Amino acid sequence: MKSYKLIFFLVFSICITANSQLSKDSISIATKIPNHPRLLLLKGEEKELLKNIRKDVYWSEMHASVLREADRIITLPLNDRIFEGRRLLNISRSNLQRIFFLSYAYRMTGEKRYSDRAEAEMLQIASFSDWNPNHYLDVAEMTLAMAIGYDWNFNQLSDQSKTTIKEAIISKGLMSSLKTNNSWLRNSNNWNQVCNTGISMGALAVYEENPALSVQLLNRAIKTLPISMNEYSPDGAYPEGIGYWSYGTTFNTFFLAAMEKIYHTDFGLSAIPGFMKTGIFSQVMVSPRLNPFCHSDVGTKIGFEPAVFWFYSKTKNPALLYNQKKLYESDTNKKYLRDRLFPLALIWGASSEASLSNPAEPKELMWLTQSRIPVAVMRSSWGDKNSIYLGFKGGSPSANHAHMDGGSFYFEANGVRWGLDLGMQSYTQIEAAGVDLWNMTQNSSRWDVYRLNNFVHNTLTINNEKQLVNGSATIESYLEKENFMGLVSDLSSLYSNSVKKALRSVELVDKSYVVVEDKITTGDKLVKLRWNMTTEATKLVEVSKNKLLLTYQGKKLYMLVEGVTNLETYYKPATPSKEYESQNPNVSLMGFEVTLPPNTSQTIRVFLMPEKEIEIKGFKSLLIGIE
Q1: Domain boundaries along the sequence of the chain
Q2: pLDDT at 565
Q3: pTM of the model
């Protein structure tokens, strides 16, 4: 029996990976579905959910906050069809937040004023000439907003409003996905997840109007979602970083939960290798001070994650809740209420009786993925907010939303981001300036953007050149022991026009200091190498020729450089030269430049020691013996 299950699983995985056919259990038009409401919460399920909410102080507090936010929304003017650059996305997201919160408030209280306002919001959206199919995320999120509102308020809507709203869902949502701009069906990124979910929920909401169309769209999603879900293989990592993990994964789990509620199956999608492991990705990518390891197009802030509670409902792993408790309690301004999908946390969290009162502390201090975008994180502790956190980013600049950050590290200790990433640059600002932002070729103006090239990342720059777009930093080996964690990465293909070989190792030693090592093999020409670290340290002191001291609010970081003597150190504000780029207040670039002769192999070792100098004894480099 076990052999049969294994063979079936392998065949199923191959089919969805190749995107060659529908799931064996694809939806039939003959399948009966529940009456309204049918998305996520069936009729009457509010009572049990509310019962669970009232049993827990955290869920009770969140529930009350959502109701207060719904009250605030009622006082606001309706949204107009206002673009930001080429996008209507901000309006789509605002409408989704409004309608989801209002609909939740109506279902949990029965107060008609909430459904009345949701109806007004939907009629306003229906009056828009279109939902901007030229940027299809806008359509997807608007369709999801309308689907929730129509389904959850169905019994309160007037017949005329029902007709207007469902016609808008069909014509401006569903039908537009069949006509143009549906390249997202073939994408492996977050667009696939978001657009499939939005359109599918629209199809479920208006199912009675055209069952054949709805089934067609739902089966299309079952067939094409694996293209993006395969990206989680083998260990749950998300190649676009933690910010886009939140976006794509939350919509993805919305789809799975809705399908399971209606059809009592997710059609095998959650069994795709790596997907059920990705809950932990949301944990490890957050530092002890609750900063995200923000490689690629990821912002510098992280928030409470509703999707984590879907994973908890499936795995019952209390360690998934560890950072969620901290993120919630640190959000004193209740920014989580700006999350348009926040009610999902209550639906999944309270219904599964997830408790934030006493979550389990994760045990693994090192986490590493060998996925398409190799990433690793190491930490000295989970419980100490001042502990060391070290992240490493591999991969290629050619990946979706990637920067020229191959070989870059993130380093936090004693609550200070000694080595940080500037994060994403506003798309609208750059596009308005005429930058060809989505052209990933080597000579694209994208790579002139300050935050996107390698000059300001915590990696190497050789001969003042940009990393090669077709190159990729790989993780060649790694080691984890009780008092030693580290890895070796091959960066050679990123710099192959300048050097023969470039290896970098990053290591956390004795849970007390970090070592960054580079082994460079030069060719026939002289090499000018720059070692950079972007930092929030406010002062740099050159203690000696090879020893530097960084300080921040009385805290210290000692840097000891071994292997070269002709260092030219620098410390300067991280200020872009173009007015349209985001400023980086209170952030500096620091590091050193060194000249390497032709036809040599040189190892440069940098010790990063928080608070005090450490006498290094018996340190064994991972680079020893590697050519």
Answers
A1: 42-181, 366-610
A2: 83
A3: 0.94
